Amino acid sequence: MPHGSTGDLGSARAVYPGTFDPFTPGHWSVVDRSRRIFDHVTVLVAVNDSKQPSQAAGARAQEIRGMLPADWRNVSVAAWHGLTVDYCRRHGCGVIVRGVRNPADGLRESELGAMNEALGVSTLFVPAQPELATMSSTVIRTLRAGRAGG
């Protein structure tokens, strides 16, 4: 069982960061499974300067908030510009949750996880459910663009 910044079992706070442009069924699955492990999960809508999302981080965060069931009381959504580790330190989150769809994701995420571990925050990798492994925000945006243009 992971433990939060207090070191006590059962007091774990986690962050699930991402661009979430858009929030996919795979993201939903990771949040659902994570909320069952941790006392609290923050879906952290990140600003990534290398990406050009369709909406500002605040608008994406608001949209995600509206998608989550009301009974998921241990899940919150926040927009953040900066390092995820800095958010974790400010808010007492001891674990970063990352979804992994395939071996390429695994390699990239393990490199980020090692860096975050060196900065004092552990990473939990959550494998994609098989039926969701091929779904990505990029795929959804491409499908939406095809429908809009066709």
UniProtKB/TrEMBL annotation:
Source species of the chain: Natronosporangium hydrolyticum
Enzyme Commission identifier(s): 2.7.7.3
Lineage, top ranks: Bacteria, Bacillati, Actinomycetota, Actinomycetes, Micromonosporales
Claim: Transferase is one of the keywords in the record: yes
Keywords from the named record: ATP-binding, Coenzyme A biosynthesis, Cytoplasm, Magnesium, Nucleotide-binding, Nucleotidyltransferase, Transferase
Keyword Nucleotidyltransferase: yes
Gene Ontology MF, one: ATP binding
InterPro entries to which the protein is assigned, alphabetical: Cyt_trans-like, PPAT, Rossmann-like_a/b/a_fold
Gene3D superfamilies tied to this protein: HUPs
Any one Gene Ontology BP term: coenzyme A biosynthetic process
Domain Cytidyltransferase-like: 15-142
Protein name: Pantetheine-phosphate adenylyltransferase
The organism's place on the tree of life at top rank: Bacteria
